[in-house]
User: Which sequence fits this backbone?
């Protein structure tokens, strides 16, 4: 059987997903392709989705700006996608189009793979910085995995409050300056906003130059691979966790939904890092 997957979004010409899924197909020894199906703002979204559905594909990924818009074109969405209000993976299951969201769980798996001891210790004190879609997914996955203490800091406090209510973990909602003041209180700090992304690489949402060396500091931005946020943390002696790893693990979970195969990651993390460093 030949697998066929696609990606919809705009703009996506430079997406890394085709490369990642081609590596997965190779590792799983499956024949297939993963193609880019860009939908521009001038296209009719409905027409494009109907065309895609008729192409006899096994599934597709959905990225910005269509993660919400796609929902009304699906037959069902799973519980996580429902709570997120966003879908990043669609599977064709016996002719029904089912939506999932693998972003949060992808982050959780990437963290677990790099810091297994952290994942064992559910009393780790966690700070999530930001309250957009990515923060929501990450908070929900960490909370569901049983982490007991999660603070959320955001420029707009109300958005952090909404996310906090999705889970049962303890922890507080903080302003960005409060988080910076108490930056030494955490075992794990996760930066989930786009602050620091190319081209504005000198920006950091809060300073982490005073984190204790035993802290794990993560940034979901992967262009540049080592953001200023991560540079500061590294200079303070903290362990850093790169954003491209979330990209890989959310893709791994999408691929598993489509094929029932969980591919081994060995080497891919490093290969993707080299590609990004060359950009
Ligand atoms: P995504 O869905 O990709 O996570 P989003 O929903 O647009 O993106 O959320 C972006 C996040 O980055 C939000 O937490 C946003 O803060 P607000 O909720 O206050 O808008 C945060 N953000 C973006 N630019 C920022 C900036 N310059 N300073 C502080 N926070 C910023």
Assistant:
């Amino acid at each position: 059987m030949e697998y066929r997957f696609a990606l919809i979004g705009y703009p996506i010409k430079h997406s890394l997903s085709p490369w990642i899924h081609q590596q997965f197909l190779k590792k799983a020894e499956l024949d297939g392709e993963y193609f880019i199906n860009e939908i521009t703002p001038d296209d009719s979204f409905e027409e494009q989705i109907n065309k895609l559905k008729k192409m006899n594909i096994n599934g597709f990924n959905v990225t910005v700006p269509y993660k919400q818009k796609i929902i009304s074109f699906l037959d069902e969405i799973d519980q996580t996608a429902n709570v997120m209000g966003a879908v990043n993976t669609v599977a064709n299951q016996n002719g029904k189009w089912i939506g999932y969201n693998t972003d949060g769980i992808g982050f959780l798996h990437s963290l677990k793979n790099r810091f297994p001891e952290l994942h064992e210790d559910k009393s780790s004190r966690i700070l999530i910085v930001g309250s957009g879609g990515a923060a929501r997914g990450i908070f929900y996955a960490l909370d569901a995995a049983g982490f007991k203490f999660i603070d959320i800091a955001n420029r707009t406090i109300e958005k952090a409050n909404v996310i906090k209510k999705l889970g049962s973990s303890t922890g507080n909602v903080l302003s960005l300056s409060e988080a910076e003041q108490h930056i030494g209180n955490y075992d794990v700090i996760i930066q989930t906003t786009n602050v620091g992304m190319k081209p504005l690489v000198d920006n950091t949402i809060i300073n982490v130059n005073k984190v204790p060396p035993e802290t794990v500091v993560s940034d979901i931005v992967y262009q540049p691979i080592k953001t200023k946020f991560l540079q500061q943390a590294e200079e303070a002696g903290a362990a850093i966790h790169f954003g491209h790893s979330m990209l890989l693990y959310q893709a791994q979970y999408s691929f598993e939904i489509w094929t029932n195969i969980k591919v081994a990651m060995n080497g891919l993390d490093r290969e993707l890092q080299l590609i990004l460093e060359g950009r």
Observations:
- The two ends are 35 Å apart (CA to CA).
- DSSP finds eleven helices and twelve strands in the chain.
- The pocket of 2'-monophosphoadenosine-5'-diphosphate is lined by residues 130-135, 154-156, 159, 193-195, 205 (CB under 6 Å).
- The CA atoms of residues 44 and 65 lie 14 Å apart.
